[in-house]
Please model this.
Amino acid sequence: MSKRGPEQLDRGRANQLRRVQTVRQRLETQTSERVLWSVYAFFMPDFGPKWEWVRDLDEGGQGHAFVVKQKGMDSEKLYVLKRLKNPRRTGRFAREIKACMTLQHENILKIEDFGDLPGKEPQKPFLVTEYCGKGNLTDGDNLPKSLIDSLKLFRQICAGVAHAHQQRIAHRDIKPENIFLRVDRTPVVGDFGICFINEDAAGARLTSTLEVAGSRWYCAPELRDGKFESGDAQLTADVYSLGKLLFWMVSGKQIFDREDHRHPRYRIGQDEPSNPAYELINQLLDRCIVSQPSQRIQDAVSLVYEVDQLINVIEAGGYPITLEVPHRCLFCAKGTYKVVVNGLQDGTEMNESNRANSMFGWGAPDRPVWLVMVCDACGNVQIFRPDLPHSRRGAANQRTKLIKEQWLAKRNP
Model:
């Protein structure tokens, strides 16, 4: 048998040494991992036999939130576990669970489980909901780029709130952080922690008089001022908040105080004055962001209808009924309509109608109301008769008055 030379022996010892070092490192790593897992297991939240902690989420005002998964399941499907922070808020937490169990709708956050965490004194209730992979509306580029897509997304949010309103449940904390997006970008309304459930004639509430409900920037004045309104009056507060949410969505995430959506500092569409969609949206906001609850659209069910109408008008290329914004010519699309006959203002109907008759040679009933606009580029003419058509004079007079007010309203300061 041949003997190995010195160099071969040195290489053999070096290889053995490397193998020994590798084994030692593996043993040290495994030992460290076992120690780390022991420490991790000691400090890791215990969510009972069904749920396993994955990671923490941002801490909310009323509770802690965690991403979890089901123990012993091959699926990596994730959920959100919300644990109550303050035991004195148990009533609110129970109300949120009840609301989520009552409301089954594609645009409302789905509840998966609830109960009390083991070994907690006092008991700490928990709630498990679906996990929305896209986060909430404030995250990343979750907002659509176009006005019409923003309105369609908003319409789905309103549909979720409308379902709650049909069950006489008011959310009372609608804001971008409480609107979540699934992976397919379907919006869902979540966090019913301070909702109002109108169970009987007197209703039931979890906020006392003079206690503020909801976010300052989005809640209705009566909630911000701590004034309690029972029953359906709570639903109009959600409409107010939805109006604020719509403004935030189409304005590049702007927020403002109270009812200042038409203030020059905030008014949407100022950089696109020829786009009629902005004024149409503003006219919807005029019926949502109103200090008096009785002057608002009364619930989200009605708001869904109004949003559908708005989307139809914008997609059809419609214009707002107002003289405050420019109207691009429908024929040449270059010029702008200018008013040449205005019979809308009180005391001018007869004189203006005479001018209209002389211009067009048309006979007209007694005291007609004319509005004539002409394109300043091609001469295309648009003629309006707000007092027609209607068979009953009293109803026609009322309708004429309303349309005249629409045309002449001074909305922009």
Notes: The domain at 51-130 is CATH 3.30.200.20 (Phosphorylase Kinase; domain 1). The mean pLDDT is 79. Residues 200 and 231 are 8 Å apart (CA to CA).
